[in-house]
Amino acid sequence: MGETSTRNVSTALYQYLCQYIVGTEEHVKTIRMMNSVRDNYQSTKKEKMITSGSFGEGLEMRGSDIDVMLVRSDIDVSEDTLIYFNAAKVHFTMDIENTKSGYTKLRLHHYPHKKILKLCHEIGDTGSARQAFMQSKELFPDEKNNTAFQRLSLIG
Hints:
Elements: H1 2-21, H2 25-42, E1 47-52, H3 53-56, E2 67-72, E3 75-78, E4 90-95, E5 105-110, H4 126-139, H5 147-155
Parallel strand pairs: 3-4
Antiparallel strand pairs: 1-2, 4-5
InterPro entries: NT_sf
Protein backbone atom coordinates (compact mmCIF):
# COMPACT_ATOMS: atom_id res chain seq x y z
CA MET A 1 0.00 0.00 0.00
CA GLY A 2 2.83 2.44 0.85
CA GLU A 3 4.49 1.97 -2.54
CA THR A 4 1.23 2.62 -4.40
CA SER A 5 0.54 5.84 -2.46
CA THR A 6 4.11 7.05 -3.08
CA ARG A 7 3.69 6.37 -6.80
CA ASN A 8 0.36 8.23 -6.83
CA VAL A 9 1.82 11.25 -5.02
CA SER A 10 4.83 11.23 -7.36
CA THR A 11 2.59 11.12 -10.44
CA ALA A 12 0.38 13.90 -9.06
CA LEU A 13 3.43 16.07 -8.31
CA TYR A 14 4.79 15.48 -11.83
CA GLN A 15 1.47 16.45 -13.40
CA TYR A 16 1.22 19.56 -11.20
CA LEU A 17 4.76 20.65 -12.11
CA CYS A 18 4.10 20.10 -15.81
CA GLN A 19 0.82 22.02 -15.74
CA TYR A 20 1.67 24.95 -13.45
CA ILE A 21 5.44 25.30 -13.01
CA VAL A 22 7.60 23.88 -15.81
CA GLY A 23 5.27 23.18 -18.70
CA THR A 24 4.52 20.13 -20.75
CA GLU A 25 7.21 17.97 -22.31
CA GLU A 26 6.37 19.53 -25.68
CA HIS A 27 6.73 23.06 -24.21
CA VAL A 28 10.16 22.17 -22.74
CA LYS A 29 11.29 20.77 -26.12
CA THR A 30 10.10 23.95 -27.85
CA ILE A 31 12.02 26.20 -25.45
CA ARG A 32 15.17 24.10 -25.95
CA MET A 33 14.80 24.31 -29.73
CA MET A 34 14.27 28.09 -29.59
CA ASN A 35 17.39 28.45 -27.43
CA SER A 36 19.39 26.35 -29.87
CA VAL A 37 18.22 28.36 -32.87
CA ARG A 38 18.97 31.68 -31.12
CA ASP A 39 22.41 30.43 -30.02
CA ASN A 40 23.26 29.34 -33.58
CA TYR A 41 21.97 32.62 -35.05
CA GLN A 42 23.96 34.79 -32.64
CA SER A 43 27.16 32.75 -32.86
CA THR A 44 30.03 33.68 -35.17
CA LYS A 45 33.28 31.99 -36.18
CA LYS A 46 35.01 33.87 -33.35
CA GLU A 47 32.32 33.58 -30.64
CA LYS A 48 29.87 30.79 -29.87
CA MET A 49 26.89 31.56 -27.66
CA ILE A 50 25.43 28.85 -25.40
CA THR A 51 22.26 29.32 -23.34
CA SER A 52 22.69 27.28 -20.17
CA GLY A 53 21.15 26.84 -16.74
CA SER A 54 17.51 25.97 -16.16
CA PHE A 55 16.27 28.11 -19.07
CA GLY A 56 18.84 26.50 -21.37
CA GLU A 57 17.36 23.14 -20.34
CA GLY A 58 13.92 24.37 -21.39
CA LEU A 59 12.57 25.21 -17.93
CA GLU A 60 10.88 28.61 -18.14
CA MET A 61 10.12 29.32 -14.49
CA ARG A 62 8.81 32.58 -13.09
CA GLY A 63 11.59 34.67 -11.54
CA SER A 64 14.36 32.54 -13.05
CA ASP A 65 17.29 34.20 -14.79
CA ILE A 66 18.87 33.35 -18.13
CA ASP A 67 22.46 32.09 -18.10
CA VAL A 68 24.46 32.63 -21.28
CA MET A 69 28.04 31.50 -21.92
CA LEU A 70 30.23 32.99 -24.61
CA VAL A 71 32.98 30.71 -25.93
CA ARG A 72 35.71 32.54 -27.85
CA SER A 73 37.83 30.69 -30.40
CA ASP A 74 40.83 32.99 -29.84
CA ILE A 75 41.15 32.12 -26.14
CA ASP A 76 42.38 28.79 -24.76
CA VAL A 77 41.82 27.77 -21.14
CA SER A 78 43.57 24.63 -19.93
CA GLU A 79 43.67 22.71 -16.66
CA ASP A 80 47.16 21.51 -17.51
CA THR A 81 50.19 23.81 -17.41
CA LEU A 82 51.59 22.00 -20.45
CA ILE A 83 49.63 23.73 -23.19
CA TYR A 84 49.62 23.47 -26.97
CA PHE A 85 50.96 26.90 -27.84
CA ASN A 86 49.42 29.00 -30.59
CA ALA A 87 50.91 32.51 -30.74
CA ALA A 88 47.69 33.94 -32.20
CA LYS A 89 45.62 32.92 -29.15
CA VAL A 90 45.34 34.10 -25.56
CA HIS A 91 46.38 31.29 -23.20
CA PHE A 92 45.11 30.83 -19.62
CA THR A 93 45.56 27.97 -17.18
CA MET A 94 43.12 27.19 -14.37
CA ASP A 95 44.10 27.61 -10.72
CA ILE A 96 41.54 26.02 -8.37
CA GLU A 97 43.52 26.34 -5.12
CA ASN A 98 41.86 28.58 -2.53
CA THR A 99 38.71 29.05 -4.61
CA LYS A 100 35.06 28.29 -3.89
CA SER A 101 33.58 25.12 -5.30
CA GLY A 102 32.57 25.59 -8.93
CA TYR A 103 34.94 28.55 -9.43
CA THR A 104 38.48 28.94 -10.72
CA LYS A 105 41.13 31.61 -11.07
CA LEU A 106 42.65 32.03 -14.50
CA ARG A 107 46.38 32.58 -14.86
CA LEU A 108 47.32 34.49 -18.02
CA HIS A 109 50.32 32.95 -19.80
CA HIS A 110 50.32 34.53 -23.26
CA TYR A 111 48.48 37.28 -25.05
CA PRO A 112 49.02 38.47 -28.63
CA HIS A 113 47.35 41.86 -28.02
CA LYS A 114 47.00 44.26 -25.09
CA LYS A 115 43.16 44.37 -25.11
CA ILE A 116 42.94 41.25 -22.93
CA LEU A 117 44.72 43.04 -20.08
CA LYS A 118 41.70 45.33 -19.64
CA LEU A 119 39.65 42.24 -18.75
CA CYS A 120 42.16 40.81 -16.28
CA HIS A 121 42.55 41.58 -12.60
CA GLU A 122 45.99 41.04 -11.09
CA ILE A 123 46.08 39.12 -7.82
CA GLY A 124 49.15 39.14 -5.66
CA ASP A 125 51.67 41.15 -3.70
CA THR A 126 52.83 44.15 -5.75
CA GLY A 127 55.91 44.57 -3.51
CA SER A 128 57.10 41.06 -4.38
CA ALA A 129 56.36 41.65 -8.05
CA ARG A 130 58.36 44.89 -7.97
CA GLN A 131 61.30 43.12 -6.29
CA ALA A 132 61.22 40.30 -8.88
CA PHE A 133 61.16 42.86 -11.68
CA MET A 134 64.17 44.70 -10.25
CA GLN A 135 66.07 41.38 -9.99
CA SER A 136 65.19 40.58 -13.61
CA LYS A 137 66.62 43.98 -14.65
CA GLU A 138 69.87 43.14 -12.86
CA LEU A 139 70.07 39.67 -14.45
CA PHE A 140 68.99 40.82 -17.92
CA PRO A 141 69.89 44.50 -18.34
CA ASP A 142 69.32 44.30 -22.11
CA GLU A 143 65.60 45.14 -22.56
CA LYS A 144 65.38 42.95 -25.68
CA ASN A 145 66.21 39.84 -23.62
CA ASN A 146 64.13 40.80 -20.57
CA THR A 147 60.60 39.43 -20.98
CA ALA A 148 59.45 41.03 -17.70
CA PHE A 149 60.44 44.45 -19.04
CA GLN A 150 58.73 43.73 -22.37
CA ARG A 151 55.47 42.77 -20.63
CA LEU A 152 55.45 45.82 -18.38
CA SER A 153 56.19 48.13 -21.31
CA LEU A 154 53.09 46.73 -23.06
CA ILE A 155 50.90 47.53 -20.03
CA GLY A 156 52.10 51.06 -19.42
